[in-house]
Design a protein that fits this description.
Helices cover 44% and strands 13% of the residues. The chain is globular and about 30 Å long.
Length: 105
């Protein structure tokens, strides 16, 4: 769903089924401006994946998404306060606003 929403908004979207595929795609594409990742996914958590990617590109912009609330993720130590976060389900408008906010930081 997110891929279709982003493509309709005019973004070029690269998708990955798991953390290993995401790392490979990231390594092969130096023009990635933003990563949208689920907090929980196959192969590694979203935060683990992002820590690896940020080692390569410290200025990488990131949005986490989860079916769990932001507070629950922070309280359980999964995410740090102040990160860009989207609760699932989200609308195309909410997604668009969050991307714009993160890209303009």
């Amino acid at each position: 769903m997110a891929r279709r929403l982003l493509q309709r908004l005019g973004y070029t979207v690269l998708t990955a089924a798991d953390a290993a595929e995401a790392r490979r795609i990231f390594d092969e594409n130096s023009t990635i401006d933003l990563v949208l990742t689920d907090v929980v996914m196959p192969g590694a958590s979203g935060p683990e994946l992002i820590n690896q990617l940020i080692e390569q590109r410290p200025a990488l912009r990131v949005i986490y998404m989860s079916g769990y609330t932001e507070d629950a993720n922070i309280q359980h130590g999964v995410l740090k306060a102040g990160i860009a976060f989207l609760n699932k389900p989200f609308t195309s408008h909410t997604l668009s606003e969050k991307i714009r906010e993160v890209l303009e930081r």
